[in-house]
Amino acid sequence: MLTALHLDGAERPVAVLLEGPALRLRRPAVADAFAPLARLARVVVHGTRVQWRTEALLACLEAGVPVAFLGRRGTLAGLLLPLRPPSQRAGLAAALDAAAALPGFRRRLEDLCRAEERRALLAALRAGPGWNCAELRPEIVRRLAAAHAPVPAAAEAVLALLRGLAAALVAEELARQGVGPNFLVRRSGGFPLAERLGDALAWQVWPQTLALLARAGAADAERPTPALRRAAIAALEGAGLRPACQQMLARLAAAVGSEV
């Protein structure tokens, strides 16, 4: 079973080297760790204190392992994608490419992503704190949740981190299904599909999120403490979200395919 490798330099810097068919992770004052490339689904880089050797990055690309970079606030900042053919060619990539030329498609795609998030939000709230589901929008729910936490600024950082982690998972799955950079890269005018669907996927861990927010204390109000970051990563990775992600992409493929 493939797993995600999270590289977080919050507590100590990390150097990533290549050792045969594995990444070698070097940290001060601890023994080196090894991550075989054949076992990696994706690599997620947190922050700026993770330093890569070029040959290690190249080995990830040659092994078909996407590398996602999260910014200082935990949001998805960028994605390094292999150029080799994806391990599976799903109908979603072809449907998106065909529909992209249709008038108004960007607005329609935004509507589909918003519907996915609304669907996930309502399911989360039905199992959550009992707020009025009919009136609430995602940004309002996040604001309310942060306001009820001990330190709202720290809670907002946790929410941003969970959304970034979910977006990295979606980006990996999109890459494996052959979706091109025009739906992954904002700077070139593309549609930020991974981030929009990541917002929806993050609601799948709403009970765990509320528990994490209750622990967001004043030790570091600007960003989650290292322990809280580890707990957020464990909550999302332990939730088994890949099937839910694949089902969401299948619904998107069916909706987009019906328009072409």
TrEMBL record:
Record flagged with keyword Metal-binding: yes
EC number: 3.1.-.-
GO molecular function, one term: hydrolase activity
Pfam family, one: Cas_Cas1
Keywords: Antiviral defense, Endonuclease, Hydrolase, Magnesium, Metal-binding, Nuclease
The protein's enzyme class: hydrolase
Membrane spanning stretches: none
Protein name in UniProt: CRISPR-associated endonuclease Cas1
